[in-house]
Task: inverse folding
C-alpha cells in the first residue's frame, strides 16, 4: 500500500477524519523516518484537515520526531523501577561508549541516545526500547552485545544502501 | 485454594492464538451472554459481582455501565484504556501480548451489555508487540464470527479497533484519552458531563481498563457469587499485582484482592535483595503514596489502602530497600509528573516546575531552611486545584514521602549533602 492508501485505511476506522491524524503521523513517520514540515502538510492534505491540527499533535506527543534521529534510537528507561535496578550506571556506560550525551546522535547518524519515562516492563528492569523491541534485565555486558549487534546490522544495511539490488534481482 | 484465571493462558505456548484460547474454553462466555442473558441482565450480573475498575480509581464497573442512557439515537462507544503509563505497571501489556482474546471477549460481552457496536482500544505507542498481537487476534476473532455482524447467530453487531498512542502519560486519564481519540492534544475535560452521557464524539461512552474487561467473561462463566467470594466483599475478585524494584522475584502475580502487602512482597516476590532490608513500598504505581515498612500489613484492596492513606491505583508495587535515598525517589517521581503534565492547569504546570527545582536542590545538598515548608505549600497549591488527578497524585506522593521520611529530607539540608552518596 502507498502511504496515502494506508492513511485512508486508518481513516475508515473513525467517523471523523480528525481522529486519523495520530495514526496517519505514525504511518508517515515510518515512511520518512521523521516528520518535517512538508510531510505534515501532506498528512493534512490527505486527510483534508486543518494543518494546525496536525502541528499541534506533533508538538504534544513525544513519539513524533520533527528532526532526524539515529537509525537506532536507544531509549533507556530511567523511571523509578529501572533507577532502582541500576539505569543510571547504564546511561553513563552508554554515554562513555558512544561518546555522546543523552539527547544526542552519533556523528555517523547511527545511534540516538534518549532516556524515557516508564516503558511498562518493570518486571525486566532495567529496560531499553530500540525500534519496536524491548531489551530487559540489562547490564553493561548485555548493552555492549546489543550495540555490537546493531553495528553489525548497520554494516549490512550500509552495503545495501551503497549497492541497491537492481529491479531484476 | 485460589485459582488464577486472568493469567491462566499467559505461560501457555502460543497463548495469544485463537486456537489456544478456544481449548481453554474461550468465547464460551460470549456464547452464554448472547444466548442466555439480556444486556440489562449482564449489567446486573456485573453490579452484583462488585467488580471495581482496575485502572486505578476503583469505580464500580456495573454502576458505570448503568449510567449509559438506554435511549437509541446517538451511537454508544466502548473504549478500553490500555495506555498503561503509570510507572511500575505492566499487567495490561502482558494480557494483551499473551492472551489478547481474553480482552476481546471481555470487550464483546461488555459492548453487548451497554449497547455499543464499536470499541476503540487505546494502546500506548511503545507497546508494539501488544498492538501486533491485538491486531492479529481481532482479525482471527472476526474471521471466526466472534466479531462483525450477526455474532454467533445473534443480531449483535460489534467491531474492535486499535488506536495507537504516541507517548503521553496523560492519555491514561479517561477524558484526555477521548480528546486524543478525537485527534486532539490530550488535555483532560472538565466533568460533568461524564463520558457515559457525552464522551467520544459527544456520544455515550464507557471507558474501562484492560484488566477490568478481562474479568467480565469469568464473571459470566462462574457467576457473581464466585467473584465476590474472592477477597473483601466491597473490593473483591482476582487481582493482578505488578512487583518491581529492589526485590528478589519481580514479576506479575495474580492473587486475591486484599492480600497483605507484606505477604505479596516477602513471600510471593521473595523479599529484599541479599543483605538488604525493605524500607518502603509504593503500592499502586508512583501516584500512590509510599507505605513505610512498618505498615506493610495493609491489605491490597481499594478500601484498605485508602484507609492507610494510600491507594491501590494500578497495583504497581515498587519495592525500595535501605540502600536508597527517599529524596532521590521523590525527586524522580515529581520530575516524571512535571514532564507529563499536559500544561492545561496552572497549579500543576507551574507548581510541579517549582517543586522539581526545590527537590533537586535538596538532593544536591543545596537545600535551605524553609524548603520543606515550601514543598508543603506547593502541594497545597496543587492538590484539588486541577481538572484531573495528575497533580493530585504528585502532591499526595510527595506529602507521604515528607511525612514518613522527613528525617532524610532534614539530613540532606543540615548536612548539605545526600547521606546515601
Result:
Amino acid at each position: 500500500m502507498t502511504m496515502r492508501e494506508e492513511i485512508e485505511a486508518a481513516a475508515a476506522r473513525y467517523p471523523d477524519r480528525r481522529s486519523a491524524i495520530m495514526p496517519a503521523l505514525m504511518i508517515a513517520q515510518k515512511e520518512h523516518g521523521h516528520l518535517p514540515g512538508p510531510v505534515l502538510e501532506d498528512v493534512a492534505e490527505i486527510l483534508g484537515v486543518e494543518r494546525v491540527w496536525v502541528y499541534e499533535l506533533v508538538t504534544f506527543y513525544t513519539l513524533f520526531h520533527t528532526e532526524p534521529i539515529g537509525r537506532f534510537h536507544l531509549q533507556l528507561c530511567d523511571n523509578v523501577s529501572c533507577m532502582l535496578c541500576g539505569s543510571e550506571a547504564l546511561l553513563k556506560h552508554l554515554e562513555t561508549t558512544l561518546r555522546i550525551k543523552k539527547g544526542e546522535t552519533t556523528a555517523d547518524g547511527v545511534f540516538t541516545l534518549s532516556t524515557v519515562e516508564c516503558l511498562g516492563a518493570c518486571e525486566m528492569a532495567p529496560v531499553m526500547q530500540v525500534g519496536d523491541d524491548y531489551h530487559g534485565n540489562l547490564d553493561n555486558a548485555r548493552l555492549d552485545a546489543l550495540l555490537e549487534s546493531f553495528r553489525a546490522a548497520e554494516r549490512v544495511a550500509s552495503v545495501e544502501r551503497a549497492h541497491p539490488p537492481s529491479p531484476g534481482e | 485454594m485460589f485459582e488464577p484465571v486472568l493469567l491462566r493462558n499467559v505461560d501457555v505456548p502460543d497463548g495469544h492464538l485463537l486456537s489456544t484460547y478456544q481449548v481453554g474454553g474461550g468465547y464460551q462466555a460470549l456464547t452464554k451472554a448472547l444466548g442466555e442473558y439480556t444486556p440489562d441482565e449482564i449489567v446486573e450480573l456485573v453490579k452484583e459481582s462488585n467488580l471495581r475498575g482496575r485502572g486505578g480509581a476503583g469505580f464500580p464497573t456495573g454502576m458505570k455501565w448503568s449510567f449509559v442512557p438506554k435511549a437509541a439515537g446517538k451511537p454508544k462507544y466502548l473504549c478500553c484504556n490500555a495506555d498503561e503509563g503509570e510507572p511500575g505497571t505492566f499487567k495490561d501489556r502482558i494480557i494483551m501480548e499473551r492472551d489478547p482474546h481474553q480482552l476481546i471477549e471481555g470487550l464483546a460481552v461488555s459492548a453487548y451489555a451497554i449497547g455499543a457496536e464499536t470499541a476503540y482500544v487505546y494502546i500506548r505507542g511503545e507497546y508494539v508487540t501488544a498492538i501486533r498481537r491485538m491486531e492479529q487476534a481481532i482479525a482471527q476473532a472476526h474471521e471466526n464470527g466472534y466479531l462483525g455482524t450477526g455474532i454467533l447467530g445473534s443480531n449483535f453487531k460489534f467491531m474492535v479497533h486499535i488506536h495507537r498512542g504516541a507517548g503521553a502519560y496523560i492519555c491514561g486519564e479517561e477524558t484526555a484519552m477521548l480528546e486524543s481519540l478525537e485527534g486532539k492534544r490530550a488535555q483532560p475535560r472538565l466533568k460533568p458531563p461524564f463520558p457515559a452521557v457525552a464522551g467520544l464524539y459527544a456520544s455515550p461512552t464507557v471507558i474501562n481498563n484492560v484488566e477490568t474487561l478481562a474479568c467480565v467473561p469469568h464473571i459470566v462463566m462462574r457467576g457473581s457469587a464466585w467473584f465476590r467470594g474472592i477477597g473483601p466483599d466491597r473490593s473483591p475478585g482476582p487481582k493482578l499485582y505488578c512487583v518491581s524494584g529492589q526485590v528478589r522475584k519481580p514479576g506479575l502475580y495474580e492473587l486475591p484482592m486484599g492480600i497483605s502487602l507484606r505477604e505479596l512482597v516477602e513471600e510471593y516476590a521473595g523479599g529484599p535483595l541479599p543483605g538488604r532490608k525493605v524500607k518502603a513500598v509504593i503500592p499502586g504505581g508512583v501516584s500512590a503514596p509510599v507505605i513505610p515498612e512498618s505498615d506493610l500489613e495493609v491489605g491490597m484492596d481499594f478500601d484498605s489502602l485508602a484507609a492507610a492513606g494510600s491507594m491501590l491505583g494500578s497495583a504497581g508495587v515498587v519495592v525500595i530497600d535501605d540502600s536508597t535515598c527517599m529524596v532521590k525517589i521523590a525527586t524522580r517521581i515529581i520530575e516524571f509528573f512535571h514532564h507529563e503534565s499536559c500544561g492545561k492547569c496552572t497549579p500543576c504546570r507551574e507548581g510541579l516546575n517549582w517543586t522539581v527545582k526545590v527537590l533537586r536542590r535538596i538532593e544536591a545538598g543545596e537545600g535551605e531552611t524553609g524548603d520543606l515548608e515550601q514543598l508543603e505549600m506547593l502541594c497545597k497549591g496543587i492538590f484539588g486545584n486541577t481538572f484531573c488527578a495528575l497533580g493530585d497524585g504528585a502532591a499526595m506522593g510527595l506529602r507521604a514521602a515528607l511525612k514518613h521520611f522527613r528525617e532524610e529530607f532534614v539530613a540532606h539540608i543540615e548536612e548539605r549533602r545526600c547521606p546515601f552518596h
About this structure: Chain B has three domains: 18-228, 238-321, 326-415.
